[in-house]
Structures are given as C-alpha cells and as structure tokens.
Amino acid sequence: MGFYTDRILPHITDKVCGVAQNGPLRERACAGLHGAVLEVGFGSGNNVGFYPVAVERVSGVEPADTAWKIAAKRVAASSTPIERAGLDGQSLPFPDATFDTALSTFTLCTIPDVAAALAEIRRVLRPGGTLHFVEHGLAPEESVQTWQYRLDPIQQRIAGGCHLSRDIAGLITDAGFEITELDRFYHPGAPKALAALSLGVAGRS
C-alpha cells in the first residue's frame, strides 16, 4: 500500500462514509447480524454503533493501519468484542464455517479481486449464514451507467481503486449466494453516478 492509500485515504474515507446520512443505511445493513460476525472492510469502525445486541463478537478485516487507529476509540467504547483479524478480504485467515453472519458496507467496490473475496466470505460462513451488505455500484439506468464507465478510471485513481460500475447483486449471486432481500435506490442528494446503492441480505446454502 502506498503512502496516500494507507495514510491519507483512510481519513478521507472516514469523513465521506461516516456522514450522518449513512447512519440509517448502516443500521439497516446491520439488522439481523448475530453470533460471530465477519466484517470485511472494517475501515474506521463506522458500523460499530449499529451492531445488534445479538452480535457476540466481530472479526474485522482491514488492510490500512491508519483506519484501525482512527477506529480505536469506537472499538474501545463498544460493548461488543472486536478484533482485527485479517488484512485481505481475498484471503481470509479463518477455517471453513467459522462465522454466523458477515457484513460488508461500501467495500466490494474497492477489493481488487471481488469474486475471490466473495468466495472467501461464503467459505467462512456456516451453512445457513447470511451476508448483509450496503454497497454502491452499477446504476439501473443506462444513461447513468454511461457516466459511471466514463468516470471509473478517475474514481479508481483518487479513491484507492474504488469502482463505480460493479454489479453488486450480480457479483454476490455469481459467488453462490442467494439474495433474499434487496433494495436498489439512489442515495438522496448525491450525483446518481456516485449514489446507486444496493442494500440487502444474501444467504449461504
């Protein structure tokens, strides 16, 4: 990881993704989490305050040291035990069927090999486990998609590899999950090319 990606970008991401308007989205994504939880893309801990009481522990995967430093106060204040337990969502250091539920918020856009990461999440979930997610990605309208494809190279350069045009629901389904809940919408007040969201739950058979 370069200096910008490891030292500067986590502060920017914390401010952008930590805005109050995202709170209800995080609360919805976290609803239903329980037991042992895997959180891929833990970042600076913006989800910590939204874990339900049924969550027994959280294993957070996050490559950026700076993000974990920013998260320190949130982690310390949480009544839920939280540990940093991995650096790379594409290669998780856990045995098969370790977790009851998994969480990904504004993360699948950035992981280089997102198919490998989703396969790993599925591997470490127990049968019947669920992946809870809220992600931005490919818009439903072709006119918006056109702008997403145009802006993608710039977005990836300034936002640490973040893609605007990934088909989140398609990627999750292709990884062997069955999506049981899905809400697709635009985040109010943001440019559509940046604000096409998918929020839902997918089961592991």
From TrEMBL:
**Where is each Methyltransferase type domain found?**
38-132
The protein's matches in InterPro entries, at most eight in alphabetical order, are given as: Methyltransf_11, SAM-dependent_MTases_sf, Thiol_S-MT
One Gene Ontology BP term is: methylation
Q: Which UniProt keywords apply?
A: Methyltransferase, Transferase
Q: Which Pfam families does this chain map to?
A: Methyltransf_11
**Per the record's keyword annotation, is Translocase included, yes or no?**
no
Q: Quote the protein name from its UniProt record.
A: Methyltransferase family protein
User: Lineage, please?
Assistant: Bacteria, Bacillati, Actinomycetota, Actinomycetes, Mycobacteriales
